[in-house]
Each structure stands twice: as structure tokens, then as C-alpha cells.
Design a protein that fits this description.
Elements: E1 4-5, E2 9-10, E3 16-19, E4 27-28, H1 30-49, E5 69-72, E6 77-81, E7 87-92, E8 95-96, H2 99-106, E9 118-121, H3 126-141, H4 149-165, H5 168-175, H6 177-180, E10 181-182, H7 185-196, E11 200-204, H8 209-219, E12 234-239, H9 245-248, E13 253-256, E14 263-265, E15 273-277, H10 280-287, E16 294-298, H11 301-311, E17 315-319, H12 323-362, H13 369-394, E18 406-407, E19 410-411, H14 413-421, E20 424-426, E21 440-441, H15 449-465
Parallel strand pairs: 3-11, 3-16, 11-12, 12-15, 16-17, 17-20
Antiparallel strand pairs: 1-20, 2-21, 4-10, 5-6, 5-9, 6-7, 7-8, 13-14, 13-15, 18-19
Helix pairs in contact: 1-3, 1-4, 3-4, 11-14, 12-13
Amino acid sequence: MSVFINRVLNLKHIKVIGFDMDYTLVRYHTERFEELTHRLAADRLVSQFGYPEEVRDLEFDFHRAIVGLVIDVRNGNLLQVSRHGKVKLAYHGLDILDFKEQRRIYQEMAIDLRSPDFRSLDTNFAISNGVLYSQLVDLKSKGSEIPAYHQIADDVNRSIDILHQDDSIKSVLTGDFEKYVIKDPDVAKMLERYVDYGKKLIIITNSDYNYTKKLLDYAIDPFLKKHKSWTDLFEIVITFADKPRFFERQGRFLRIDPETGLMSNHEGPIVKGIYQGGWFGKLQKDLGYSGSEILYLGDHIYGDVVSIKKTCNWRTALVLGDLEAEMDGLRKAAPVQKKIEELMDQKQTLEREINRLDNLRYEGKRVSHDKINKLFEKMDGLNTEISELLRQYKAFFNPYWGEILRAGYDESRYAEQVEKYACIYMTKVSDLYAYSPKTYFRPYHRTMPHEAAALNSEERVSSRTK
């Protein structure tokens, strides 16, 4: 897979490379992981939050949610929002809202995501969260004794948080890493290569040290060629970082003894070792590098990317694992997309001709009504063909929501965040292994609408003079 570039990034100038751990350094089998979270959260809702027993029996449907959706806690809807804040698709529970109902509720106005009525699903557990929320709204619609929509959202979030706080999820994972964790030998190769090139490597993870050690012992150590342990690769490891708080406010560093796991208060500079908590400001100061010399890779758009860009000037890279299946769909859908574009070109030609004739008629010149009607008939035929092709195109992606980075014809809100805050992005961190640590990443020149119009105009003139 490739690395995708939003902004210029010269790896030669990067001195420190930081990594998140879960879903970044180490990938999980997402569907299995989300199904586990869904099941445990549903059980917790019954046992601790008083939800009806039938909630335990809810079956997980991986396709019912995707990363980047928005929960409308006032109306109980799950939304797909464009980069312009417009609702493009909405479900109430498990039922899609028809266009009239969607327009009645949202009135084609831009959604203000700063409002407490809306909550973004962009965390590691966005899918299990979204699926469970939709199922609970569906049960409520069918008469089950389920709380109000905003309370459902609070309870689902809280139940998932508790699963992490009491290690319910991680105890299952550590008992069966083989089922849930993807081993990727190229990650170890990439890390050793960066060390050979003199890069300082660090880890900043929200996981605790005990779990971090077990996971990296399993996923990294077996593939090392020049080092005995992952601890030899990393200059500094920070656990329980509490991102995004780590990048937003000061916190105390605790030093961890790697042999015993015991912690002690830490005073003085942050030097090679393993820590808990802390704050990026002190870490950067003690590392002795400017923010532009530090690159951080993570999978969480807010905790690992947006918060960094808003509080410090580190360079950022997003690991978007969901993109792998989407790109496979794009490749398979390419022939259909090509036909759609050809028909759209024909449609635009017809529209230009209709506009030309309409302008002539407005200027008082005689224009045949039959000619215009025939053009509209051709337009209707093209629309029918395009609609069928769009149906075929959508079949290559999520059956409920389509593409993650698209909301209808527009880019999605999630795509807008990726473009705005991530310098580069990729499907997995080992994609970087295909690139030299001295690579100069440059984005493609972006063509703005007026530039495209000027270029197309020049092409039409050129074709007429040949």
C-alpha cells in the first residue's frame, strides 16, 4: 500500500518518530475486536445500567456503522455528514430515513458539531458504539423500556469506558492474542531501519505498561533481527498517556521500573526509559528538538492528530485501517466509475446546449421547442442509466453507508479532518517500510474549480484548431 500525502513532509528532517500503539504499531482484527466490545458492552448495560435482558441477545452487525459518523442524541439518529456539515444519509435505529423526513428534521442546514446534540464517532470503538446505539434506538422504537436518546449515548460510552478501566477487554485479548492481533513482520523491520538511520523512536499510548509489554512482546519481538527486545528500539515509552489530554495540559511523569512494573515520582529531565502520564511540552523540551522535527503516527483522528495540530507543531500521520477495504472497493468499482464519468460528460454537454438555446430564446431568437424537448428526453435517459450505475457502484462498499471518505458526491466530514490535520496517511504503519527514511513526500498539485475550468476551456480551443 502507498502513503498518501496532504502536505510536504521531508523524513530526512525528522529526528524523532512517535507511535501510538493500539491500531498503529499493532493492528487488530477489527471485526473480531469490535464484536467483542459490542458483546461485553451490551452485557454491562444490562448488569450495571439496568437495561432489559433482551439487550444481551443483540447480534453484532459489523456493517451497521463506520468510522466518522455522527450521533444526533436529540432525535436518536445516526448521520453521515459531508465536509460542509450537510446530512447526506441518516438512520433512525436500524431504519433509513427517507429524504423528506431527513429534510424535515435537518432542513438542509449545516450541522454544528460543537452542539451537545451531536457526538462524533471517531474513536477506536466507533463501530461497536454506533452499532449498539442504533440497536438500542431500534428496541426503544419497538416499545422496549429504553432510556431517552441522549441517555443511551451516555450509557453506551460509559459502558465501553468501564470495559477498559477494569481490563475486561484486555484480559480477553491477552488470553488469546492470536485471535485478535495481526502480526506484521514489516513493522519490526521498519523500526530497526529507522534506528539504523539515527531516528529516535518513542511510544505514546493510552494503554497501561503491563498490557503494553505483553502486546509488544508478542507482536514485535519475534521479528527483530538486530535487537533482542522492543525496549531496545524505543528511546522513551509513555504509557497511560491519557490522550488527547497529554497534548492539551500539563501532567506529572511517573517513572516505571520495567522489571517490576512499579512506579515512582519522576523529577528532572525525561531521559531514556518507560514512563506513565506526563505532558508533551516537557517531553519535547527534554528531547531538545523543535516540533517540526517530530513526527507522530496514530489511528485516532482527534486524540492522535487533531489535538496535536491544535496545540503543538508536531508533524502528523494517520493510520486509517478502514481504508484498505475501501481502496479494494474503489479498484473493483473502477469500470463502473468510468462509465458514470462518461455519461456525466454527455450530460454536461446536453446541459450546456440546453443553456445555450435557452439564452437564445431569452434574447428573442426563435428556438425549436421540439429540439429542447428532445434534449431533455436524452437527459432523462442518461439520468436513468447513471442511477443504475450508481446502484452498482455502491455495492462495492458498505451496504448501509457507502464509502468512509465520501458522503454522497461530497467528501465526508471525516475526510475533511484527514485532509486538514494529517500531513500523510496510510492503511497501516508498515506501509512506511516501502519508503526510505530520507523520503521527501510531496502532495500532488490540487486543481481548484476555476483552474479546472480554465484548463478545460483551453483544451476545447486546442481541439477546435487541430
